[in-house]
Amino acid sequence: MRVKISLISDKAVVLPKKFNHITQAVIYQLIDKISAKWLHDGGFKIEKRSFKLFTFSSIIEKGKYHQQKEMFTFPHAVSFYVSSPVAWILEQVAKNTAFSEKLMFGQNEMSISSVEIIKDDDITGNKIRINALTPIETHSTLLKGDGSKKTYYYSPTESEYSELINENLRKKWKAYYKESCPYNIKIKPVQMKYCRERIRSFKGTVIKGWTGHFWLEGEPEFLQFALAAGLGSRNSAGFGFIEMVGKRRSTKEC
Fold first, then answer.
1. Domains along the sequence of the chain with CATH
2. CA–CA distance from 182 to each of 157, 167, 170 (Å)?
3. What is the reported pTM?
4. What does each of the 254 residues of the chain score in pLDDT, given as a tens digit?
5. Element counts in the chain: helices (H) and strands (E)
6. Which three-class secondary structure state does DSSP give residue 53?
């Protein structure tokens, strides 16, 4: 399930080039304070890992990028999606929009013009075509010869890309349902030439991921979970937001 949040201002919306943390802050602001703190400080834990179990799209409306200032200018009305398999997260976001007359979206004072609850289409088959609207990233931390660490980001052409995405999603399942995941998924590009590597920065960390169309194979229940939870790592930072191709109007990533 996901919600679409629409914001409006009396003037153009100006945001820095790296604004994922701003959207994330708005989402936390729309969750009840105690729940938001619990999510932010740890959330759903399994072994040494913790998951927030939500992700979000970029702004749907097309913005104009000003290279010299490294800023985006958007129209006075903007919107974005929040997705999660956790009903109470989306319920709180939707509920609290009714009590938020004004909020700050970066340096922009805005009002919430609407919130739309969207139920994902039921998946009945074992293979779906998805569009990664924000980069799906998966990585390993490697130890270099001098003892220092290096983060290696995988490409969809490498077998580890699908393997690690599957492993990550199985852990999310276990963290949420508190039981071992009985399913597996496989992901591969529909055509590699239509996938794009995206380099993003979140709170000072440079992150590499991939957008484009992919085939996702697995049990329907697990595919449904993937659609809501997002794929890969750093979902709560706005990575791995996906949707089924042809089922809904696509958003565009800036």
1. 2-118 (3.30.70.1890), 127-244 (3.30.70.1900)
2. 26, 12, 8
3. 0.91
4. 899 999 999 999 999 998 999 999 999 999 999 999 999 999 999 988 999 999 999 999 999 999 889 999 999 999 999 999 999 999 999 999 877 778 999 999 999 999 999 988 889 999 999 999 999 999 998 887 787 888 999 999 999 999 999 999 999 999 999 999 999 999 999 999 889 999 988 888 889 999 999 999 999 999 999 999 999 999 999 999 999 997 544 344 44
5. 5, 17
6. coil
